[in-house]
Amino acid sequence: AQSVTQLDSQVPVFEEAPVELRCNYSSSVSVYLFWYVQYPNQGLQLLLKYLSGSTLVKGINGFEAEFNKSQTSFHLRKPSVHISDTAEYFCAVSDLGGNTPLVFGKGTRLSVIA
Amino acid sequence: DAGVTQSPTHLIKTRGQHVTLRCSPISGHKSVSWYQQVLGQGPQFIFQYYEKEERGRGNFPDRFSARQFPNYSSELNVNALLLGDSALYLCASSLTGFEQYFGPGTRLTVT
After folding, report:
1. Chain B residues touching A51 at Cβ < 8 A
2. pLDDT, chain B, mean
3. Which residues are within 8 A (CB) of B92 and not within 5 positions of it... i.e. 6 or more apart?
């Protein structure tokens, strides 16, 4: 079964500094990868996805992620964070084949400090 | 277009009671999935429906059931509620099966 490890439960960072949120997944077979963001008392919003093609994926709000198959990683990055980026971030994976459920990590709480 | 909608927003129930949660997918999406998110954890998969057929079930007891209607809306039912069922219940819809779009969730509190 798939599993996702988000290595940091909390990441504090100063405003306008860069940030990287780490994600590793278990499977060595082909997968789809996703990052979602959850603001307080809200549902999940899709930030970006990797389905195929270029390993560098760009998403909304200036975020990007790089797929590394050999290291089974899909780390999320942003070169300069804003206060409004404070939220919970979830990495998720699903197997190829469509209509397969997402397996989520436990989340990383990003706190941006003014 | 409207996103995924869920009702109710919040719900308080007593142990042993039954609850029904509702979800309307994005227009044109035929796949609906349900997830449970306990405080401090990532969402856990409960059910997936596609074209009114159950396509997947997560590791949840038989007290949990769901169905999808001809208009692709869905209900999640939980019987004999336990304190541990307190969570945010998320519904997601999908057009392709690969990308899932989530609703705002229903916050269930069991006392």
Report:
1. 98
2. 94
3. A44, A102, B4, B32, B33, B34, B35, B100, B101, B102, B103
Torsion sign (Cα): B41, B47, B49, B52: negative
For B102, the closest of A44, A94, A107 (CB atoms) is: A44
Q: How does the average pLDDT of chain A come out, rounded?
A: 92
Interior CA angle at B86 toward A89 and B93, to 5°? 55
- pLDDT tens digits, residue range A19-48? 999 999 987 677 889 999 999 888 899 999
Put simply, the answer to whether A106 touches B58 (Cβ < 8 Å) is no
Question: pLDDT tens across B32-52, in order?
Answer: 999 999 998 999 999 999 988
Of the candidates A45, A47, A39, A114, the residue with the CA atom closest to the CA atom of residue A77: A47
**Residue B62, number of CB atoms within 10 A of its CB:** 8
The pLDDT of residue B71 is above 90: yes
Does residue B8 have a cis bond before it (omega within 30 degrees)?
A: yes
Q: Which of B88, B43, B92, B90 is nearest to B72 (CA)?
A: B92
Structure tokens at B38: 């306990």
Q: Do A90 and B42 touch (CB under 8 A)?
A: yes
Structure tokens at B111: 């006392």
Does the pLDDT at position B4 exceed 90? yes
Of A34, A24, A29, A33, nearest in space to A3 by CA: A24
